[in-house]
Structures are given as C-alpha cells and as structure tokens.
Amino acid sequence: MTxxxxxxxxxxxxxxxxxxxxxSRITAYIFRVVETDHLxxxxxxxxxxxxxxxxxxxxxxxxxxxxxxxxx
Length: 72
Prior knowledge:
three-stranded antiparallel beta sheet
C-alpha cells in the first residue's frame, strides 16, 4: 500500500489483509530508519501496525505487503 492508501484506510477503519489473514484495521503507520551495516549506511523502512480481528493483539507488517480487503 502507498502512504496515501494507508492514510485513507486508517481514517476509514477499513479491514486489511496480510499474509492471507484479515485484520480489523491499521492502527499505526511506522517510519523507521535502520542501520544496514556498521559503516553508517541507513535505509528507510515503512511498516504498519495491524489490529487482529479479536481486538486483542497487533502485528507489525511491511507496508507494501498489506492490501485492502475491499476498495474504499
């Protein structure tokens, strides 16, 4: 999903799918900067926090691996 799609899905409380499982909604959009080696090289990682269908736990997933269950 793109940043705009993630934002729209969050405001719509839309269900999403990740690795074949359906989640209630996206609860957070995470922007991380991680070191790739010990030489000071960094990369940006975009992740989302997904609320499970029982509303008991969250899963952190790569943003580009998540999809909407139904179009908005």
